[in-house]
Amino acid sequence: MINEKPKPSSIPDEPGSYIFRDGAQRVIYVGKAKSLRSRLSSYFTNELQLPVKTQAMLQTAASVEWIQVGSEVEALILEYNLIKQHRPRYNVRLRDDKSYPYLAITTSERWPRAIVTRGMQRKGDKYFGPYPHTRAIRETLDLLTKTFPLRSCSNTKFQRHEKMGKPCLAYHIDRCLGPCVGKVEEKEYRETVAGLARVLRGDSDWIVQRLESEMRQAASDLEFETAARVRDRLSSLRTAVERQEIVSAQTDNFDLLGYYEDELESFGQLILVRRGKVVGRASAVLDKVEPLSSEEVVESLLRSLYEEVVSEVPSTIFVPALPHEMQVVQSWLTEKRAGKVEFKIPKRGQKLSLMDMAQKNAKIEFDRSRARRATDHNTRSEALVELQSALGLKQAPLRIECYDMSHLQGTNYVGSMVVMEDGLLKRSDYRRFKVSSPKNDDYGAMEEVLRRRLKREKERLGENENIEGAPSTIKRFAYPPNLIVVDGGKGQLNVAVRVVAELGMTDQVELASLAKEFEEIYVPGKEEPIRLSRSSQALFLVKLLRDEAHRFAITFHRLLRAKSLKRISLDEIPGLGEKRKELLLAQVGSAAKVLSATDAEIDSWTFLPSKVRSEIKEQVHNRR
């Protein structure tokens, strides 16, 4: 808690960034504002009306300071740099899990090179990309240098051959113009550099036409060796150009952002289109420390991608939602581009199809990212140890079972159990439960499922032969769980504690519950929930387990519901005789549509008596 809150009169009414620090002077939150006075004052007036994350941040904060700048755009840039520098726990963060490869032309040098590079970008050079992996870009560069033979050697090698007065092998095989030994004028060399840059931007028609003309002229002059060399250059060029995926018949230049997210992460993918061709893709992963709207996710991804990854900003950026504080982001990108930047949401046609493609690609990359994290042995070990420490477990939970319930208005109650061993999901041990608890009794359903599972475990251990209802076989469960996780809050945890205590297994099984809203974990004996870091491997592991239990329960519930609907017969409805049934089916279409109709739809069937409509409603409700 901040000891001495700043007086509004002491805060400048100007744009800037502000920094909250904790008692150890660590930066815990960085923000920006058009008016520092107005924004900071809002933190200290109605604190109880602030979001939960903001309240938690203020409870941790011990001091606040600010940096005044000249404009909102400068405040935006300063905020990003401060977040990148300090990585505050309460800010959304870009997770830098890889360095993207670019094709660079070193135009800052007298004799520019064409190279593949990663990391920091040097002022004065031209960068193209980023590309998904280096193999594709190296193959493309190899093809293009047959037409645009720029040097690719290091400066050290260039200087060595310059002193020797002899060119390297690349010159002799027509893969370099030989600037080190004066075989080319600087003007001609610069024209070759400009030509390569044009092709990398997607403009290749001019060079294809020129090479075709040269080939025809050489053939007509009976210079067949020259014509063959030009033909080979033309073939290599066309192969390189064909690698650029054509997405528009027009010569459009734009970027298109798609993203996929869950409660912990947002994975964004930016597709770069130049002259109607895809020339690169860029990705960013955001660790979320709070729920974000679509507008806030889009803003965070744009800031991360154009600050860290993408060097060239086009005039048009297609987005799934307009960014939060759009004018500030627009001004920043306009300044970065030195030209107007416009945001658009595609509504129809090809741009909408591209947006769908970007969203699907983001989902694929998101799943791959999760799969890599889930299957990496070191990451799994780290997560299990972290979970043991955070929850105060006796040992690392090598076998975890997670339980979830599913129903629709109290009908077709089902439970699911999913299993994780050594940090990996073990699908062969998943189990499904039909629940006989009363309607809308989540606690009763959870108690029934846990009791059935743990009774079976006691029988396996030879401890519950006399327990009523215990199964006679024990083959389905081979190992006891170290940790049981139930989906829900303190209520579901209390149910689990009671069942375990009644069966005398308190010392054998440890318990926890995961509340979905704020990803809070409750454990027995602690009133306050445990909040793991949003970027922690332990939280990723527990959430993966909980989501899998939910998916498995929903799948089983839908299966039972489908079977239930198949058993329904209109003949069971009182007052619905053959003629009325024929009339009803003619109007509605099928028995399944009748028995899945809403009350409003049934009320609209005025060709039936009100009493019959009431009977249909009752049957529909009973079957749900």
TrEMBL record:
Classification via InterPro entries: GIY-YIG_endonuc, GIY-YIG_endonuc_sf, GIY-YIG_UvrC_Cho, RuvA_2-like, UVR_dom, UVR_dom_sf, UvrABC_protein_C, UvrC
Protein keywords: Cytoplasm, DNA damage, DNA excision, DNA repair, Excision nuclease, SOS response
SMART domains: GIYc
UniProt subcellular location: Cytoplasm
Residues annotated as transmembrane: none
Domain GIY-YIG per the UniProt entry, residue ranges: 13-92
SUPFAM superfamilies, alphabetized: C-terminal UvrC-binding domain of UvrB, GIY-YIG endonuclease, RuvA domain 2-like
Gene Ontology MF term list: DNA binding; excinuclease ABC activity
GO CC annotation: cytoplasm; excinuclease repair complex
Matching CDD domains: GIY-YIG_UvrC_Cho
Domain UVR: 205-240
GO biological process: nucleotide-excision repair; SOS response
Major location (coarse): cytoplasm
Sequence ranges assigned to domain UvrC family homology region profile in this UniProt record: 269-500
Known role: The UvrABC repair system catalyzes the recognition and processing of DNA lesions. UvrC both incises the 5' and 3' sides of the lesion. The N-terminal half is responsible for the 3' incision and the C-terminal half is responsible for the 5' incision.
HAMAP family hit by this protein: UvrC
Assembly, per entry: Interacts with UvrB in an incision complex.
Family: Belongs to the UvrC family.
Protein name according to UniProt: UvrABC system protein C
